[in-house]
């Protein structure tokens, strides 16, 4: 059975009363996660000379590898962050790792909204009165892409290609742990309680990210701007440290024991969607489970035209309320 990017078997552990994802080890009740190996590699990235790319959260982890590989292949890369020092440290490290190659890397200051993804954070409202994951994982990227759209459209018109200008939403297959559809009457999911509440809110925000990419693609692909959402894969990171519940401890334990993607492997899905000439044909507007493979589990959301339009209007209304459109 396949779930996400893991080949898994489900088996109960009598001692713990839990279910875990992974391949059974010789010891009963112990499971090792085995991610599928990517079919796209950094060597498949085409020549990117002349491209200009913005990467949010590009100073560490998956974002770092994404930025480095894009710059290594010739593009000008702007790393968007609130911290100039962290970005400059990352740029210095990339240059030292480039074996003498010239990298065109720059810092882009963004202090309007927090654009670094967060995962399973305890319930808290932002200054704008939104649950932190909803604002960080959906509203902020929506606002950022929308603010860049005039430039993206003019770039697409100037280059004369409908496949070169792209917007990539890094979502997660944890979206399927959220509700079946957007909680329109409670987008902050205040009423959600229980052991899975943090994961449900996280999934809710990532579902919105998937739907938002579809809406963006539907609106602008005919004018040369395509959009994609994706699952990067399971990778050891600080994101798993937010959940203080027993389930969070189990997830951290499983990730620690299991084999996970390296940050580079986890970046390959983003790199595929951003650079592969095949990506628009494979699935512009769709949710990619891994490079060149879309996930049919998201089709119900992607085909919900009314729901996607409603979500888009919600994002646009918030931008207007804060003077961003």
List keywords for this structure.
325 residues; three-stranded parallel beta sheet; 13 strands
How many structurally independent domains? Answer: 2
Counting copies of identical and different chains, the oligomeric state is: single chain
CATH superfamily of the largest domain: NAD(P)-binding Rossmann-like Domain
Structural class: alpha/beta
Cα(first) to Cα(last) distance is 45 Å
Cα radius of gyration in angstroms: 19 Å
The CATH class of the largest domain is identified as Alpha Beta
CATH fold name of the largest domain: Rossmann fold
Would you identify the CATH architecture of the largest domain? Answer: 3-Layer(aba) Sandwich
Q: Number of DSSP strands?
A: 13
Mean pLDDT: 82
What is the strand arrangement across the widest sheet?
Answer: 10-11-12-13
**Coarse shape:** globular
How many alpha or pi helices? Answer: 9
Strand percentage lies at 5-15%
Uncertain stretches: 1-34, 113-117
What is the string of SSEs from the N terminus onward? Answer: EEEEEEEHEHEHEHEHHHEEHH
Largest sheet: 4 strands, mixed
What is the topological layout?
Elements: E1 2-3, E2 6-7, E3 12-13, E4 18-19, E5 23-24, E6 31-32, E7 52-56, H1 61-72, E8 76-81, H2 84-96, E9 104-109, H3 132-159, E10 165-170, H4 197-220, E11 225-230, H5 246-257, H6 263-275, H7 279-283, E12 287-290, E13 293-294, H8 299-302, H9 305-321
Parallel strand pairs: 7-8, 8-9, 10-11, 11-12
Antiparallel strand pairs: 1-2, 3-4, 5-6, 12-13
Quick take:
This protein has 325 residues and is α/β, with parallel strands linked by helices. Helices cover 39% and strands 14% of the residues.
């Amino acid at each position: 059975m396949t779930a996400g990017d893991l080949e898994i078997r489900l088996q109960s552990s009598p001692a713990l009363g839990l279910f875990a994802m992974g391949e059974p080890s010789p010891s009963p009740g112990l499971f090792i996660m085995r991610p599928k190996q990517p079919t796209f590699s950094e060597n498949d990235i085409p020549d990117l000379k002349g491209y200009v790319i913005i990467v949010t959260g590009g100073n560490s982890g998956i974002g770092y590898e994404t930025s480095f590989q894009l710059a290594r292949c010739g593009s000008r890369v702007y790393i968007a962050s609130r911290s100039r020092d962290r970005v400059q440290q990352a740029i210095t490290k990339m240059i030292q790792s480039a074996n003498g190659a010239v990298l065109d890397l720059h810092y882009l200051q963004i202090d309007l909204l927090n654009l670094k993804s967060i995962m399973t954070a305890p319930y808290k409202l932002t200054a704008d009165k939104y649950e932190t994951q909803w604002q960080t994982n959906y509203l902020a990227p929506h606002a950022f892409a929308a603010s860049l759209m005039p430039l993206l459209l003019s770039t697409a018109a100037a280059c004369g290609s409908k496949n070169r200008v792209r917007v990539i939403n890094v979502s997660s297959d944890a979206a399927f742990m959220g509700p079946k559809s957007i909680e329109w009457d409670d987008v902050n999911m205040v009423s959600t309680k229980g052991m899975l509440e943090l994961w449900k809110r996280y999934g809710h925000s990532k579902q919105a990210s998937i739907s938002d990419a579809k809406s963006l693609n539907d609106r602008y692909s005919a004018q040369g701007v395509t959009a994609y959402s994706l699952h990067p894969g399971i990778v050891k990171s600080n994101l798993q440290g937010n959940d203080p519940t027993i389930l969070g401890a189990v997830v951290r334990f499983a990730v620690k024991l299991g084999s996970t993607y390296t940050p580079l492997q986890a970046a390959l899905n983003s790199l595929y969607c951003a650079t592969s000439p095949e990506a628009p044909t494979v699935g512009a507007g769709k949710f990619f489970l891994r490079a060149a493979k879309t996930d049919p589990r998201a089709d119900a959301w992607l085909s919900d035209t009314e729901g996607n339009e409603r979500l888009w209007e919600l994002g646009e209304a918030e931008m207007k309320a804060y003077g961003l459109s």
